[in-house]
Amino acid sequence: MPSFDIISEIELPELQNAVDNANREIETRFDFRGVAATFERNENVVNMSAEADFQLQQMQDILRSKCVKRGVDTSAMDLGSIEHSGKTYKQAITFKQGIDQPMAKKIVKTIKDAKLKVQAQIQGEQVRVTGKKRDDLQECIALLKSAELGQPFQYENFRD
Fold this sequence. Notes:
Layout: E1 3-7, H1 12-28, E2 38-42, E3 45-50, H2 53-70, E4 77-79, E5 83-85, E6 88-95, H3 101-113, E7 118-123, E8 126-131, H4 134-146, E9 154-159
Antiparallel strand pairs: 1-8, 1-9, 2-3, 3-6, 4-6, 5-6, 7-8
Helix pairs in contact: 1-2
């Protein structure tokens, strides 16, 4: 019986490369001269620190553009709140990894509401979709790509 898995992952080495490129750009930009502004990555969280909140906004744009160039999907970015302590502003950006339970239920509901001839089941941090025909599975992939679910998905283990 044909099946495939729906997962949501980003490539952490590419994220590290994007963070390194963003740090290099900050060092060379004129508007960041003499400013203590940095990006730091811990697993799938990028911490930004700067001397003003508008600089954090500029740093978000820089990181977003570097992620796009490196092939990291920016819809996986979850912006945290801006924290002010002393003369520094800090913000954490979390990159979503895996499919959490509410999102998995939303995917299954979307598939069932479309009345496709496939079955979807949640397996940990991924969703497995099975069906009798390969065309039904491809229709399901097209449906999920067109649905705006707020998280990037990859489709793997497509088997006949």
